[in-house]
Amino acid sequence: MLKLRQAIVVEGKYDKITLSQLVDAPIFVTNGFGIFRDEALISVLRRTAETRGLVILTDSDGGGLVIRSRLSGCLPKQGVLHAYIPDIPGKERRKTAPGKAGLLGVEGMTPETLLRCLQAAGAAVEDEPAAVRGPEITHSDLYELGLSGRPDSKARRLALQKRLGLPALMSTNALLTALNAIYTRDEFLEKAKP
Predict the structure, then answer these.
(1) How far apart are CA 118 and CA 7, in angstroms?
(2) Torsion of CA 167, 169, 170, 171, to 10 degrees
(3) What is the per-residue pLDDT across 7-48, written as a single tens digit (0 to 9) for each?
(4) Helices 153-164 & 172-182 angle (0-180, nearest 10)
(5) Nearest C-alpha neighbor of 141 from the set 176, 171, 169
(6) Type and span of the H or E element at 62
């Protein structure tokens, strides 16, 4: 498994599952065309691109190109890399029929193909992640701050997410992914103070 310096944004949850078996990096999901209505996610992706870098990896069909175009138009040019999968005819195993374009998406690519695509885009492998970013924000940190494991944790998390400009509809794990992509642990602990 490769630890990437940049975060990755993909179209759907199955793309994320496939990639998470290959790389150790924050992986964001656009929920397909949901990205057109999710300004909070765009804000998170913009900050991620500015702080650690972001790789856009979408399907090669028309929908993937529209999503890539949307992201390209609202994210900074600097800090954003574009990874492209090849046009390979077929269908993903979980589907009963191929998509409209008849091409495999990110989830249908072989691990070798995906790693080549990320390499070709210029994604950087971290040799010494601890020296670069320091310790990560953990579930324990959230618990210590009262953001999990307590009766009022959900309300406290929502208030923090609003204050930090993060989407409200995030699971605790998704929140951790976003926080670790945007902030160092020390930065987060400072911002999390009431």
Answers:
(1) 11
(2) 170
(3) 999 999 999 999 999 999 999 999 899 899 888 899 999 999
(4) 30
(5) 176
(6) helix 62-74
